[in-house]
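User: My collaborator sent over this chain with a note saying "see what the structure looks like." That's all I know about it. Can you take a look?
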Amino acid sequence: MKKPMIGIVPLYDEKKESYWILPGYMKGIERAGGIPVMLPLTSDEDMIASIAEIFDGFLFTGGHDVDPVLYGEVVEEYCGKPCRERDVMEEVLFKHVLELDKPALGICRGLQLFNVLLGGNLYQDIIIQREPKSNIEHQQKPPYDKLVHSVKIEKDTILYGIIGKETIDVNSYHHQGIKQLSKQLKCAAKAEDGMIESVFMPDKRFVLAVQWHPEFIFNSDDDNLKLFVEFVKAVFK
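Assistant: Without extra context I'll predict from the sequence alone. Here is the result:
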């Protein structure tokens, strides 16, 4: 059987002016039976349209904060510096992915990006802005393969269909999060403090995103390996 080609949005280092990738993103796709390919960051809409056609699925990775301008807010001092290159490319790419109904998996920033591009918004910093304050550890220190809090998975969601459990433990490394959920998304999981930890598009073949980082824990946690496996398998549905 032909292995699916999965396009992965790269991370970007401004100081080095370089694209880079965490090995867990690539190895997670490999372990799931796909061929991972790091994409270029480009604003060329014809090129992005071709990329959307060529690849079988897309992984939207973690990284920079999404520019608050995209959800109608000014950038607060506690917001991280956005990456314009990523915002521009991913907005166009995600539009094509939805039009073509290609499988898409979002991780951390990916979840936040999906929500923003579909009309939702974010806390620019959950520690400063979110009320009431939480004692849940959302920004853990290394190592990132340690599980630090639980999430409750909603039944009748794609995530429950993949994992088959109502509660799992996850790692957590993010300072932003969903404030207002897009009307085009459904919540698939929440942390004990109510923070949205997973979303999906019910009218698409496979558009799923998680706030935690399966790329660090799929080797030691079967629940998170299943995320990569079902993502790659969705290519054939």
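A starting point for your reply to your collaborator: Residues 84-100 form the longest helix (17 residues).
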